[in-house]
Amino acid sequence: MCYIEAKLLESGEKILLDELIGKLSAMDKNHGNGALSIFVGLVKGELNEARVHELEYTAISEVAAKRLEEIARDICTKYSLSAVVIYHRLGRLKPGETTIYIVTMGTSRKNTNPAMIEVLERVKKEVPVFKLEKRSDGEYWVIGDGVRYRRTLTPSPS
Amino acid sequence: MRITIRSYSIFSDFLGNEVRIELDESITVGELLDYLKNTYSLPSKPEPIVLINGEIASLDQQLRDGDTVYIVPPFSGG
């Protein structure tokens, strides 16, 4: 059986990794798991010689939460893992703050490491999350995996 | 029929977060995009992705009364 946890976090919501690791390892009563891989994404403070002041993440929340869970389930099955946890932050984040947490637990690093990387690649392509970069040289919408459009309009009223 | 349009990222600068439109007859996703490009100067790049009620839709998909349509660019999470 695979333990799945996948959710969107508001920017101020704290994650205690030691607590999470303790909870996951406590589920492994027979100690059959030999590896737990963790990826934590961070906001970069500098890009293309510009200073990044803030990233703002938005999402189609109800769709994004469902997709995160589907990805976690697929990856758990594909790599025969015992746990996959994905947390993605939304809202305004400063340089050095965390954006995403991916945790995979299984028998060996040979399955937990590639599983963790595949989760990240799938999240980037399949989960409706969007990024605005606020920099010293202007504001940029980040489109897909790294194409940037300079923001030229102020937002229209809703 | 009534349609609710929600937009994100670069498209929200043109459309706002939510627009409601009323139509006399059913149209396709492609026709809706043409309407939005003409009415709101929606840019053609990046290519918009359209989701209807949470699922990615094709250009020839017919819209129905009460649909919620999401207009978004390629995703950029992670």
Record keyword descriptors for this entry.
heterodimer, A: 158 residues, six-stranded antiparallel sheet, 10 strands, B: 78 residues, alpha+beta, Ubiquitin-like (UB roll), five-stranded mixed sheet
Commentary on this structure:
The complex is a heterodimer of chains A (158) and B (78). Chain A has three helices and ten strands; from the N terminus they run βαβββαβββαβββ. With 158 residues, chain A is an alpha+beta fold. In chain A, the strands form two sheets. In chain A, strands 3, 4, 6, 8, 9 and 10 form a six-stranded antiparallel sheet that branches. In chain A, strands 1-5-7-2 form a four-stranded mixed sheet, covered by helices on one side. In chain A, a hairpin with a 3-residue loop joins strand 9 and strand 10. In chain A, helix 2 runs antiparallel to helix 3. Chain A is elongated and about 55 Å long. Chain B is an alpha+beta fold. Chain B has one domain: Roll (Ubiquitin-like (UB roll)). Chain B has two helices and five strands, in the order βαβαβββ. A five-stranded mixed sheet of chain B has the order 2-1-5-3-4, with no helix packed on it. In chain B, a hairpin with a 2-residue loop joins strand 3 and strand 4. The radius of gyration of chain B is 12 Å and the shape is globular. The termini of chain B are far apart. The model of chain B has no long low-confidence stretch (mean pLDDT 94). The chains are: A alpha+beta (158), B alpha+beta (78).
Mean pLDDT of chain B: 94
Give the uncertain stretches of chain B in residue-range form: none
So what's the oligomer here?
heterodimer
Determine the number of helices of chain A (DSSP H or I, runs of at least 4 residues).
3
Secondary structure: elements and pairs:
The complex is a heterodimer of chains A (158) and B (78).
Chain A: E1 3-9, H1 17-27, E2 35-42, E3 46-47, E4 50-59, H2 61-78, E5 83-89, E6 91-93, E7 98-106, H3 109-126, E8 129-135, E9 138-143, E10 147-150
Parallel strand pairs in A: 1-5
Antiparallel strand pairs in A: 2-7, 3-4, 4-6, 4-8, 5-7, 8-9, 9-10
Chain B: E1 2-7, H1 12-15, E2 18-22, H2 29-40, E3 49-52, E4 55-56, E5 68-72
Parallel strand pairs in B: 1-5
Antiparallel strand pairs in B: 1-2, 3-4, 3-5
